[in-house]
Amino acid sequence: MPIRIAIVEDDAAIRAAMQSTVEGEGDFVLKGAYGSAEEYRARHNGLEDLDVVLMDINLPGISGIACITEAKPKRPEVQYLICTIFEDNANLFNALCAGATGYLLKSAPADEVVRSIRGIHAGGSPMSLPIARMLVDSVPRKQANAGLLDSLTKRERELLDLLAEGYRYKEISDKLELSIETVRTYIRAIYTKLQVHSRTDALNKVFAR
């Protein structure tokens, strides 16, 4: 099934670029591109025709965060991927609390946007690298769950530590001198052992406040 997508972005040039990216993928279907939350809400009030929404934060009228807060309970399976120029803790945490499950900077290249849409639809929580590292740095040092860590091999724990530091798969591959497919195999094994589906869930499960 194609991934049904809406875009909510008030900057016409950025909205057009996002639209072009979405329309360039054979497994994506663009259901609409809107300059405000009000326009989006008027067209997709029931949300039955959407899977993923690319949402700006700083919109005229209703903000992106307020829009997600209102819309998410109506249809929780719709995934909200924040695309914004804001790179700060307040907006990040407010967006995540509202129900967003991914957070990208508008400077992210088109291929990262495409990967993130597919990832969030598959159950992941994609974040631009600067955002992931900022999130890790903002969280107080946590105490590891020794029992869960003991279930991992030494190499798996090494990869988990790099995930916690915000490294991408390619960076982990280069750092450990492993192929990208080997890295993916290790990470799938980690997720299976921890019974999670994303980096965020893995870190939250292993590390307790």
Structural description of this entry:
The protein has 209 residues and is an alpha/beta fold. The protein has 2 domains: 3-135, Response regulator (Rossmann fold, 3-Layer(aba) Sandwich), CATH 3.40.50; 140-208, Winged helix-like DNA-binding domain superfamily/Winged helix DNA-binding domain (Arc Repressor Mutant, subunit A, Orthogonal Bundle), CATH 1.10.10. Helix content is 51%, strand content 15%. It is built from 11 helices and 7 strands. It has helices at residues 12-23, 37-43, 64-71, 89-98, 110-121, 129-138, 146-150, 154-164, 169-176, 180-194, 199-206, and strands at 3-8, 28-34, 52-55, 79-84, 102-105, 143-144, 207-208. It has a 5-stranded parallel β-sheet, sandwiched between helices. Strands 6-7 form a two-stranded antiparallel ribbon. Helix 4 (89-98) links the parallel strand 4 (79-84) and strand 5 (102-105). Helix 8 packs across helix 10 (180-194) and helix 9 packs across helix 10. The radius of gyration is 18 Å and the shape is elongated. The N and C termini lie far apart (40 Å). The model has no long low-confidence stretch (mean pLDDT 85).
